[in-house]
Model the fold of this input.
Amino acid sequence: MDCIFCKIINKEIPGKIVYEDDVCLAFLDLSQVTDGHTLIVPKSHFDNLLEADDEVIAHMLKVAKKLGNQLVEKLNAKGMNVLTNINETAGQTVKHFHIHLIPRYNEKEGIQITFEDRSSQVSLDEIYDKIMK
Ligand code: 5GP
Ligand code: ZN
Done:
């Protein structure tokens, strides 16, 4: 499969690997949205979180905590965004499941996640019913 992250996992192309075990690998994201921007990827290929194995996901979240603390300690980060994109609609560009760890040092960095308040335009009851029916 022509997958750039599988190639990094298989050491076919280089990556700045900061963590590795039997289940997953973590390496520095090339873009470095902020210093220490890291990706955690499963060694088995899943397209995204919704396709991935439950135990693998649980393990990766533990690794996210461990590495997150390491980034805070070593880089003096003041906070962190932990996120995963699913499909192009949500901004996914590499179709191999990955968790972004984006250390934050201030509020004016190159990542902006804003939540628009649409509560006056939608019905919570209608949406709830659609999900639960
Ligand atoms: P996505 O947009 O799919 O959530 O994130 C993909 C990320 O992979 C991007 O932040 C991008 O910078 C990173 N990336 C893409 N290709 C490579 C690569 O070859 N090496 C590394 N280290 N990161 C990559
Ligand atoms: Zn892959």
In short: The CA atoms of residues 119 and 125 lie 11 Å apart. Helices lie at 4-9, 54-75, 124-132. The longest helix spans residues 54-75.
